[in-house]
Amino acid sequence: MRIVSGALAAVLLFATSAFAAEAEGRIKAIDRDNSTITLDDGKSYKLPGEFDVDQLKEGMEILLAYDKVGGENLITDMELSE
């Protein structure tokens, strides 16, 4: 019973530290050194590891999915306008 209780507690702890969300807007700023983008609402999002930042341009419309982990918004998926 202890093992089950411990496993359940670990799952609940992890579930509360990360959640999926979506955001939509225009790219206001691109920080290539820190691999982040800032949308026109002022919120910043961390790009995935090997993402080609050269695909992004300020002013582009973007729809993204992200997880909030450790106080950072980590992008998990994105759709760019043409």
Architecture blueprint of SSEs:
Elements (H helix, E strand, L loop, with lengths): L1 H16 L2 E12 L4 E4 L4 E3 L14 E9 L2 E9 L2
Antiparallel strand pairs: 1-2, 1-4, 2-3, 4-5
Structure notes:
The structure is a single chain. The chain is of the alpha+beta class and 82 residues long. The protein has a single domain (20-80), classed as Copper binding periplasmic protein CusF (OB fold (Dihydrolipoamide Acetyltransferase, E2P), Beta Barrel), CATH 2.40.50. 20% of the residues lie in helices and 45% in strands. The protein has 1 helix and 5 strands. It has one helix spanning 2-17; strands spanning 20-31, 36-39, 44-46, 61-69, 72-80. A 5-stranded antiparallel sheet has the order 3-2-1-4-5, with no helix packed on it. A hairpin with a 4-residue loop joins strand 2 and strand 3. The longest helix has 16 residues, at 2-17. It is globular, with a radius of gyration of 16 Å. The chain starts with a helix and ends with a strand. The relative contact order is 0.22. The model is unreliable at 1-6 (pLDDT under 50).
